[in-house]
Design brief:
The structure holds two protein chains of two kinds.
Chain A: E1 2-11, E2 14-24, E3 29-34, H1 40-47, E4 57-60, E5 63-64, H2 70-76, E6 78-81, H3 93-100, H4 106-119, H5 121-125, H6 136-148, E7 154-158, H7 166-181, E8 185-190, H8 193-199, E9 202-207, E10 210-216, H9 217-222, H10 224-230
Parallel strand pairs in A: 3-8, 3-9, 6-7, 7-8
Antiparallel strand pairs in A: 1-2, 1-4, 4-5, 9-10
Chain B: H1 2-32, H2 39-56, H3 61-84, H4 92-114, E1 119-120, E2 130-132, E3 135-137, H5 139-161, H6 163-173, H7 175-180, H8 185-210, E4 213-214, H9 218-233, H10 238-257, H11 264-278
Antiparallel strand pairs in B: 1-4, 2-3
Helix pairs in contact in B: 1-5, 1-8, 1-9, 1-10, 2-3, 2-4, 2-8, 2-9, 3-8, 5-6, 5-8, 6-8, 9-10, 9-11, 10-11
Classes of the chains: A alpha/beta, B mainly alpha.
């Protein structure tokens, strides 16, 4: 579904991503794990078109998308839940969701809302409320619901557990599992390696802008290096 | 008491024009953080459009006003495309300096084309005054206030209820997140300039009803006062711009009513200083949390 080959991304003179390649197959949950500053978010932002790679290629649904504008990628079926949620704080919950469906025809919006509300009942209760009044966990749910409104083929989640209490983290990962069972393909970026590996099929470990290790989630959980560096064992 | 009411009506008339112009400032600031100092000069071009349409082309005043709205809208979008879009990723100060440059360019172009002397605009509204009890109320004032309020209601509906309006709010809050929703940011910004400039066109027509002449520099003072109105209301806030416009207009009229006409402009700018000292975010402005 998504194939990323040999991308190199720079911030000015800083070489942030070095020859990174990875792929996500239909129906999989793939996770990119790594420490702060390893380049996880940079990779997602490059896939979604907010940043550009100087080399290599990005193929999404058999189409080269390296030079496609971010807003057009959404229409092609790529949705990103950005780091830090980034919901529109001054707009209501429902308006946020409507923005998620910006690329969908008007006739689909209502069905989309019903679908998101049945998944996240909290959002339904608060639909007329301004998003800025929601708690962190609710905002994360809103950000995920908003991304689902675009009916994505591939959902990219950037640190969905960031800043949330352990109980809420469990909840968010439960939702990720449900989405996976419903057939959604997911690319998950996480610092919380334990949680990420528990839901993922395959994983890539990033270190200072490079892929250091890759394999099935099970292999990673059993890998000594990963255990030491990321699982605190 | 009578004079007070007359002056209040005057204040509402002028204030509603300031409000329309302030909306243009505030919307553009909200979306690209630019103080578009060329906004007042777009109004000046609108005034000349009305003058040409009536005197040289012999159009009906209503058509002349429509013409002004169309020309202002196109001009606003053109300025955005040519002068501001290329600087989208530049520091904000570059944008600001460019806006001042565009303002000077428009003023000097107008001076070359139309001359430095004031051109008299034939009256757009020709109807007798309305008599309410023992008072004579000018039709122009009533039309100005009604047209402004209708425009503001229209704008509020557009921004609150339509898909494009919601996209404008989304882009102004978080441009990157808006892109990730599939919103075409450039189109949205262009649309914002179009709406702001269309309001400037309406403002030009109403201004010409109150002060029926066009000069190359007429936009700068009007633009500055509207800017004060926008800051007073809280720049970036649409209801703030409306309130700010009315407050500035009424304040000015009351100063004149007190027989201190020469102080009117000074009072407006004194208000700006006071706002900046005590409530820099304005009446309805949100505090900006600069991300580090």
């Amino acid at each position: 579904m998504l194939t990323v080959e040999n991308i190199n991304v720079y911030y000015g003179n800083i070489h942030a991503i070095k020859d990174v390649s990875f792929r996500v197959k239909k129906g999989e949950i793939v996770t990119l794990i790594g420490a702060n500053g390893a380049g996880k978010s940079t990779i997602l932002n490059t896939v979604s078109g907010l940043l550009r790679s100087r080399t290599g290629s990005i193929t999404f649904l058999d189409e080269a998308v390296d030079h496609v504008a971010p807003h057009l990628l959404v229409a092609k079926g790529l949705a990103q839940v950005p780091e830090g949620r980034r919901v529109f704080l001054q707009m209501t919950v429902e308006e946020n969701l409507e923005m998620g469906a910006f690329t969908r025809p008007k006739s689909e919006v209502d069905a989309g809302l019903q679908d998101v509300y049945s998944r996240f009942e909290r959002l339904k209760e608060r639909r007329k409320q301004v998003a800025g009044t929601l708690s962190g966990g609710e905002q994360q749910m809103l950000a995920m619901g908003r991304a689902l409104m675009s009916k994505p083929q591939l959902l990219m989640l950037d640190e969905p557990s960031m800043g949330l209490a352990p109980l809420l983290v469990e909840q968010i990962f439960e939702i990720i599992r449900e989405l996976h069972q419903a057939g959604t393909t997911i690319l998950l970026v996480e610092q919380n390696a334990q949680m990420a590996l528990s839901v993922a099929d395959r994983a890539y470990v990033l270190e200072t802008g490079r892929v250091a290790l890759e394999g099935s989630a099970q292999e990673m959980l059993n890998n000594d290096q990963v255990k030491k560096a990321y699982l605190g064992a | 008491m009578m004079t007070f009411i007359y002056q209040l009506i005057n204040g509402l008339q002028v204030g509603s024009i300031y409000a329309l112009v302030a909306l243009g400032y505030s919307m553009v600031y909200g979306i690209i953080m630019l103080l578009n100092f060329a906004h007042g000069d777009v109004i000046m071009i609108g005034a000349y459009t009305i003058w040409i349409s009536i005197t040289a082309m012999g159009l009906h005043p209503v058509l002349a006003v429509l013409m002004a709205v169309v020309i202002c809208t196109l001009l606003g979008m053109f300025i955005e495309k040519v002068a501001y879009t290329p600087l989208r990723k530049s520091p904000r100060i570059s944008l600001l300096i460019t806006a001042i440059g565009v303002s000077m360019l428009l003023q000097n172009l107008a001076q070359i084309v139309f001359g430095a002397n004031a051109q008299t605009i034939p009256s757009i509204v020709t109807a007798p005054n309305i008599t309410v009890g023992s008072m004579q109320v000018s039709v122009t004032a009533v039309i100005t206030i009604v047209v402004s309020i209708l425009s503001m209601l229209g704008l509020t509906f557009l921004v609150q209820k339509t898909k494009m309006g919601k996209a404008m709010r989304a882009v102004s809050e978080d441009t990157e997140a808006a892109q990730l929703m599939g919103i075409h940011v450039n189109h949205t910004i262009s649309f914002t300039f179009a709406i702001g400039s269309a309001l400037a066109g309406i403002g030009a027509a109403l201004y010409c009803c109150a002060y029926p002449q066009a000069t190359p520099t007429m936009g700068s003072m009007l633009g500055l006062k509207a800017f004060v109105a926008a800051v007073l209301g809280g720049i970036g806030s649409i209801p703030g711009a409306m309130i700010g416009g009315f407050v500035i207009g009424i304040a000015e009229a009351l100063v004149k009513a007190a027989g201190l006409s020469v102080w009117a402009d000074g009072v407006v700018f004194a208000i700006l200083i006071v706002v900046l000292l005590f409530k820099p975010t304005g009446l309805l402005g949100r505090t900006m949390n600069e991300k580090v």
